[in-house]
Amino acid sequence: MEYDFGNNVWPVEADKGQISQVIQNIILNARDAMPEGGTIHLGCRNFYNGNTIPELAEERLIHLTIRDHGIGVAEELLQRIFDPYFSTKEDGSGLGLAVTYSIIQKHSGHIKVESQQNVGTTFHIYLPASARLPTTATGAASEAEAEKPWKILIMDDEDMVRGILGNMLSAQGHTVLSCSEGRECLKIFEEELARKTAVDLTIMDLTIPGGMGGKETAKRILKLQADAKIIVASGYSNDPIMSTYRSYGFTSALGKPFTSQELRSAIIKLQRQVGCL
């Protein structure tokens, strides 16, 4: 890796997890384009538009570049590179760059690609600069801010993950219930509703081998309680659900692995949104 960051780069208003997914998707493609190894260049600088990027009206932009020295993409295929299910790799899903394009569009930005076969590929990402300064360097919740204790239901097929996540939540003062797959999750959720001790938040894995996964479970939970709060937690950052989680009924998304502080920040943000804090 080679890094080249300009001085005093302007802040942008962006979802950290989604922009991280964009960079990861492009880096993975760059790695696959260099099977014998090579260098990936990552740069970020302030950029004055001046109608250089006519797709964007903003004058102040952030210009992010990711360049490899790999096999490149044929010119006739470049116009299809962001199409869903189109891939130049035999085992590619064609979803990584489609998700990348969607995320940049939702951030009011623009992405384009240049490529020359056997020379390399460069992705250019432009995001509008923010006029506001960030309130904290990390965006994390203040240490002095305490969340309200909630009853939280965990759904994950891995015992270790359930144990670690349960310990994190218990240490933060929450009551924890857990299960390994969707049908069990629905049973617990329905029982708690019947007892009038409803679950405040469900944190569920997206993919459950041999069981009901997060997508279907969330849909059924929302039929039981339309305003249920559900966080999807997955290590499959390329899954389109992670970047468009609201379309599937999820309240928020956490990419695995995540820290206790990231989990706490997500819960505090959610509690602010629903008026608990």
Report on this structure.
The chain contains eight helices and ten strands. The longest helix is centred in the first third of the chain and has 17 residues, at 16-32. It has two domains: 2-128, Histidine kinase-like ATPase, C-terminal domain (Heat Shock Protein 90), CATH 3.30.565.10; 151-273, Rossmann fold, CATH 3.40.50. It is of the alpha/beta class.
List the topology elements.
Elements lengths: L1 E4 L10 H17 L8 E8 L11 E8 L7 H4 L17 H11 L3 E7 L3 E9 L22 E5 L3 H13 L3 E5 L2 H13 L6 E5 L8 H11 L5 E5 L5 H4 L8 E4 L4 H14 L4
Parallel strand pairs: 1-2, 6-7, 6-8, 8-9, 9-10
Antiparallel strand pairs: 2-3, 3-5, 4-5
Give a quick summary of the entry.
By secondary structure, the protein is of the alpha/beta class. It has helices at 16-32, 75-78, 96-106, 159-171, 182-194, 214-224, 240-243, 260-273; strands at residues 2-5, 41-48, 60-67, 110-116, 120-128, 151-155, 175-179, 201-205, 230-234, 252-255. Helix 1 (16-32) links the parallel strand 1 and strand 2.
| Shape, principal axes of CA atoms | elongated
Main β-sheet description: 5 strands, mixed
CATH architecture of the largest domain: 2-Layer Sandwich
Helical segment count: 8
Q: In terms of structural class, how would the helical and strand content be classed?
A: alpha/beta
| Spatial ordering of strands, largest sheet | 1-2-3-5-4
Radius of gyration, whole Å = 21 Å
